[in-house]
Specification:
There is one protein chain. It is built from 11 helices and 12 strands. It is an alpha/beta fold. The chain has a 7-stranded parallel beta sheet with strand order 3-5-10-9-6-7-8, with helices on both faces. A 3-stranded antiparallel beta sheet has the order 1-2-4, with helices on one face.
Length: 414
């Protein structure tokens, strides 16, 4: 049975004076998952059961049920990496899932509790109000791709939950080095416009919150001061590593000169050159790939560009958009990356960040198939890779941190 939505757009975003605390130990969460310091199984994961909008049109191109299917996969399907480890150690039956209880997920705050001051800037207040009130024009809804579904309270709610989830995931990454959201990656959305099945850009909102300073123009400073942004030096630079098959054109617009994220948000974007969107935006680092690009040329381009971006930006936080629409069987892809290639991609990006001590938050990005369960199983991969790294590096056993060059926070593990 689908849980009924409790969302009420007219009650959205109360001020800090009107609402109870949305923080638990500085985290914007309504439920603390399994304590990462006691969790030797997997990195922190963020999930809400209403990430998937109920009663979704069966034939819609966007596989809305995929978010719940991702959770179902990590809760029920055997984990291939755990199987390999247990075989090597001669322990276990190799059939246990990765996540042993729904209570082990961290949970974002409810949509009505997520403050509007956390969204604007960088999101245009007028656009945000129109969306939240269900009053976007038919043309705006067409550009988004959800058309008449866009004004449904359940869709508005899941959109806000997704943003809140990515924000929480980034906070957990700053605290523990690595975390993942079972949704997120709404990279086509711009400040005053949604596009390509994305409405509010969670990556831009997260980057702005993480780089907020006292001298930024903002009325709700008291609330923002309570927001956890790490234990060391402030976050000045956020790098989005976008490996979705479609260029993150919306995210790129937030880093333009003159914007409030200029010099704070940087984008490395690997995408299929001939795929949506047209025309492309200018990212900090653009890597356009030809149709049918396979594992080796893809991974080579990723390795070179990631090294360059990390070296030049020296980010204190990486947001990794792990879209699975690069997969050879994806319905809307144009690339030809195998399952093994996707594993190597995720391991390379996440492993490089962990190796350098850069906190990294992963989101799922795009993935398309006629069967949402299949897409959910593909999206589960990045969470399994996070968990594998978490175990290999014993990341639950954090002993200290220190400041690296340009105030980068470098995490140390036993």
């Amino acid at each position: 049975m689908t849980e009924k939505s409790a969302f009420n757009s007219t009650a959205f975003a109360p001020t800090s004076q009107e609402q109870p605390s949305i923080f638990i130990d500085g985290l914007v969460t309504s439920h603390l998952g399994l304590d990462p310091r006691q969790n030797a199984r997997h990195a922190p994961m963020v999930y809400h059961e209403r990430y998937s909008c109920p009663d979704w049109p069966v034939k819609h191109t966007f596989p809305m049920a995929k978010f719940n299917m991702t959770a179902a996969s990590v809760l029920n399907d055997p984990d291939e990496f755990l199987e390999e480890e247990e075989e090597e150690e001669g322990e276990g039956d190799g059939k246990q899932p990765l996540v042993l209880s729904r209570d082990h997920f961290y949970r974002p705050v409810e949509s009505n509790a997520f403050p509007r001051s956390f969204l604007s800037p960088p999101i245009c207040p007028d656009f945000l109000q129109s969306f939240l009130s269900g009053s976007l024009s038919s043309e705006e809804c067409r550009l988004i791709g959800f058309r008449e579904q866009t004004s449904r309270p359940e869709l508005i709610e899941r959109t806000m939950l997704e943003v809140a989830g990515t924000v929480l995931t980034a906070q957990l990454a700053l605290r523990h080095g690595l975390a993942s959201n079972l949704a997120g990656g709404t990279h086509h959305a711009q400040s005053a416009e949604g596009r390509g099945f994305t409405i509010v850009n969670d990556l831009a909102v997260t980057a702005r919150l993480m780089t907020w300073k006292e001298d930024d123009s903002q009325a709700d400073c008291d609330l923002l001061r309570q927001f956890y942004r790490g234990d060391g030096a402030p976050v000045d630079r956020v790098l989005v590593v976008d490996c979705d098959v479609h260029q993150g054109d919306g995210t790129a617009t937030f880093s333009r000169a003159g914007g409030n994220l200029y010099g704070r948000l940087f984008t490395l974007d690997l995408h299929a050159s001939n795929n949506y969107p047209h025309p492309k935006e200018k990212c900090t680092y653009d890597v356009g790939l030809p149709d049918d690009c396979s594992d080796e040329p893809y991974l080579s381009a990723l390795s070179v560009s990631l090294d360059k971006a990390l070296r030049e930006v020296e980010p204190q936080l990486v947001l990794y958009n792990a879209g699975v629409d690069i997969y050879e069987a994806d319905r809307l892809g144009r690339l030809c990356v195998s399952w093994e290639g996707m594993k190597r991609r995720d391991m390379h990006v996440l492993g490089k960040c962990v190796e350098k001590g850069i906190p990294v938050a992963a989101v799922v990005g795009g993935g398309y198939d006629n069967d949402p369960k299949v897409v959910g199983q593909r999206h589960a991969l990045v969470h399994r890779v996070c968990a594998k790294l978490w175990r290999e590096r014993r990341m639950w056993d954090r002993t200290e941190y220190h400041h690296g060059s340009k105030n980068r926070i470098v995490l140390k593990y036993r």
